[in-house]
Amino acid sequence: MILSELSGQSLGHRTVSYDDRTTILYALCAGATADELDLVWETRLRPLPSLATSLGLWAVEAAGNLGAYDRTRSLHVGQRLAMLSPLPPTADIAMTAQIDAVWDKGRAAIVELGVRSSYFELGYTIFLPGMGGFGGESGPQVSDVAPFEPTGSVLVRTTENLALLYRLTGDRHPVHVDPVTAASNGFERPILHGLCTLAVGVYAVAGAIGAHPADLTSLAARFAAPVFPGQVLEVRTSNSEGQAVRFDVTSGGVAVLKDGTASFTGTSD
């Protein structure tokens, strides 16, 4: 199959299982503390909704397996989440997935993947450097939005072993653990998962605005730069009452997550 034929391609069905250990581990990776018992104790557990972004990763692998591009040279650059129903603490979740669109950006291509279940809808944006120029549509233009003007921020220090722990939630790509693989991809050492950075970011956003992190209803962000375990992240927010929270994440003055929006129960998109 060739890249220009991928749009609309079904990626099939998958049932993904997880238990309370995964739910708790994910919350700990995001930053949950011992006094948040409903995030870390199985007797009253409320999963963080962003756990869904990890559950749908099988679709990214399935798209790469179609053979239209080298998935080792693909980059996960954007993530979307819409919650339809709260996640159970442990479950077997049936999902379907397809390639929603393929855009020709000239020097690169963009592949948009959609994953759907009765609990959530997910969107993964995959960037393919050097794969454009095949004569396809360029896709929608980015609409003008008001400049992001943060009104608050919080500092989060990631731990040196965070990538090692987050791997156990499901994403075991060697770039997050093996120095040789990291070096072959141009990194000085193994990097943190983008979805882990997103989990840390949205958890911090909830705390910054006084929302419960398990009350997340929607989320979107773009991945802008890698994070190394141990780095300090600055999560900046701009919240207008009754509206989705805008946020970004920087480290050392470099943006690592951009164009973030998050809604919680009581806010709107």
From TrEMBL:
Pfam families: MaoC_dehydratas, MFE-2_hydrat-2_N. Coiled coil: none annotated. Residues 156-249 form the MaoC-like domain. Residues 17-123 form the Peroxisomal multifunctional enzyme type 2-like N-terminal domain. GO terms for biological process: fatty acid beta-oxidation. InterPro entries: HotDog_dom_sf (IPR029069), MaoC-like_dom (IPR002539), MFE-2_N (IPR054357). One of its GO terms (molecular function) is 17-beta-hydroxysteroid dehydrogenase (NAD+) activity. This is Unannotated protein. It comes from freshwater metagenome.
